[in-house]
Amino acid sequence: MGHRAPIMGNVDPVGVVYQGDRDAIFAGVKEAVGKSYDSPCGYTISTGCDIPIRISMENMLFMMEAARYYGKMPLEPGKFV
Known about the structure:
The protein has 81 residues and is mainly alpha-helical. It has one domain (7-72). Helix content is 44%, strand content 5%. It has a two-stranded parallel ribbon with strand order 1-2. Helix 2 (22-36) runs parallel beside helix 3.
């Protein structure tokens, strides 16, 4: 599908972003980006569907930090091994 449309997703919103610590969030983002970083039409990191209403700002900031680390252009495929 990535050759036809951009891909978006899919970090587990509850098990990783809501309940996880920094390491779990980084691992979730790494896994998501690692599966899709080479999509010809692009890739956007996101939670799987919604963001839980009581999620901590700290965890959202961890997800943004991880996205900047793993999604920095040019991408380094070695980060996903």
